[in-house]
Write a structure and sequence with these properties.
The protein has 307 residues and is mainly beta. The protein contains four helices and 19 strands.
Length: 307
């Protein structure tokens, strides 16, 4: 096998991963190995695989891209693979799990120390260790997720097989593609008047949502309930569920949380959101230029492989 004998299991608010370090660049996994490791019955189990390697040791990056990451200060790269073995540009929860793992290896300083400039296929992400933060967790990281792009509001139709109804979704590019649909609005602002799908909590997201028009790269799809908005403070609260391309429903999606906050800012003008997912609670701040994500990470344990 082209994977090491010892791997780690970790997660970011329930979005879970098989993780390992490859400082010598000798353990790039095959798609079959990723599928085996992420299989919840026959492998370790995870929504994806995180390989911590130097940029020049990630084979799908050409020398120019690897050098750009290095020039931007990224000694280490998060080589992220979806559970189905496909490559992914970015994973917000994965960056936090990777950063916590890097801390255990001495590659990143602890709370109060220097940030980690982590390479991804969507560029360099800057992570700062905050330690314990009330309401968020004990191993919290702040991530500068970088710039975002959004399309026309509600330009996409969204349906779910075997569900009655539909919704309108907004395309958001967070380095990877998302379509965000608001299904419920408890604030009285008519943010979900065009949605006829069931309530967010009642959706069966084991079924892949259908987006129209089709996005060639495929996409993650987020379904949102807006719970509260404080216009004086400029903050809001929401609940989100997500179906991720390459792995199905996950308990959390970092880039999906950012895409959700971008969409809600577009609809309401509010830029700071506390968003609850099935795996926990995170905070997102959106400006004209970038998105910041703050949330917890956890290393569950180490695994010795027998094959």
């Amino acid at each position: 096998m082209s994977i090491p004998q010892h791997v780690v299991k970790g997660h970011g608010t329930g979005n879970d991963f098989v993780i390992y370090a490859d400082p010598e660049g000798i353990y790039e996994p095959t798609a079959d190995e990723v599928r085996f490791l992420c299989d919840r019955h026959f492998g370790v189990g995870g929504d994806g695989l995180l390989r911590l390697a130097h940029p020049e040791d990630v084979s799908d990056l050409d020398a120019e891209r690897a050098e750009r990451l290095r020039a931007a200060g990224a000694e280490w790269m998060m080589d992220y693979r979806n559970a189905d073995g496909s490559l992914a540009e970015m994973c917000g929860n994965g960056t936090r799990a990777t950063a916590l793992f890097a801390q255990t290896l001495g590659y990143m300083e602890g709370p109060g120390g220097a940030p980690l400039r982590l390479g991804t296929r969507a560029g360099v992400k800057i992570l700062t260790s905050l330690g314990e933060v009330p309401g968020l967790g004990s191993n919290v990281f702040h991530i500068d997720m970088g710039p975002w792009k959004a399309g026309e509001s509600r330009a996409y139709g969204v349906t779910i097989p075997d569900h009655e109804g539909s919704a309108r979704g907004t395309f958001v590019d967070m380095g990877n593609p998302h379509v965000v649909a608001v299904l419920e609005d408890r604030t009285g602002r008519s943010l979900a008047d065009d949605a006829t799908l069931p309530a967010v909590a009642d959706l069966d997201l084991s079924r892949k949502p259908v987006v129209d028009p089709v996005i060639p790269t495929d996409q993650n799809v987020e379904f949102v309930r807006v719970d509260a908005i404080d216009e004086h403070a400029g903050t809001g609260e929401a609940f989100m569920r997500v179906n991720e391309r390459g792995c199905g429903e996950t308990l959390s999606c970092g880039t999906g949380l950012c895409a959700t906050a971008v969409t809600l800012r577009q609809l309401t003008g509010v830029g700071e959101w506390t968003i609850t997912v099935r795996g926990g609670t995170l905070r997102v701040r959106v400006t004209d230029d970038n998105v910041e994500l703050t949330g917890d990470a956890c290393i569950v344990g180490e695994v010795t492989l027998r094959r």
